[in-house]
Amino acid sequence: MREIIIIAAAAENNALGKDNTLVWHLPDDFKRFKALTSEHYIIMGRKTFESFPKPLPNRTHIIITRQKNYKVPKGCLVVSSIEEAISVCPQEENLFIIGGGEIYKQSMLVATKIELTRVHTEVEADTFFPEIKSEDWKLVEESFHPSDEKHSFPFTFLTYVKRDLSE
């Protein structure tokens, strides 16, 4: 069965970014993002898409926007809702929801898994990740990484799965 996976990096206060940019540089988080999302469909809002210098290699981009006639490079798809984004992906393919804040909020009900990098700091932001409610999500894996010469902040990779209603 296909998984709909939210993937994000958020601070302790759920901050995602400010002025359409990330507020930290964590090379190991980028490596994990690339390893998990390569060769898959990635769903994002228009502002997230516009924050990239060019489309990410080896991924099919699906951009959600209300703008009519929004122009995207070849190989990218434009849709108007999270439901439409999911419907254009092949049924057997896992897909990744990569932001921003509003898209994450809309996808919490349909997602089956969350791959979250919890950055152990609090930062000023204008975009936030939705609260992960323990009655809806179960933490199944975590891996802590201390700060070092390449990583200004310590962080933890967290994997959550949607709770079964019978739990």
What's the short version?
The chain is of the alpha/beta class and 167 residues long. The protein is built from four helices and eleven strands.
- Mean pLDDT, to the nearest integer, reads 95
CATH architecture: 3-Layer(aba) Sandwich
How far is the first residue's CA from the last residue's CA? 20 Å
Indicate the proportion of strand residues: 25-35%
Radius of gyration of CA atoms, rounded to a whole number: 16 Å
Order of helices and strands: EEEHEHEEHEHEEEE
CATH fold-level topology: Dihydrofolate Reductase, subunit A
> How many β-strand runs?
11
What's the CATH H-level superfamily name?
Dihydrofolate Reductase, subunit A
Q: Any low-confidence stretches, pLDDT <50, length ≥5?
A: none
Choose one word for the global shape. Answer: globular
Helical residues, percent: 10-25%
CATH class: Alpha Beta
Report the structural category: alpha/beta
Strand order of the largest sheet: 6-5-4-7-1-8-11-10
User: What's the story with the biggest beta sheet?
Assistant: 8 strands, mixed
User: How many domains comprise the coordinates?
Assistant: 1
Number of contiguous helices: 4
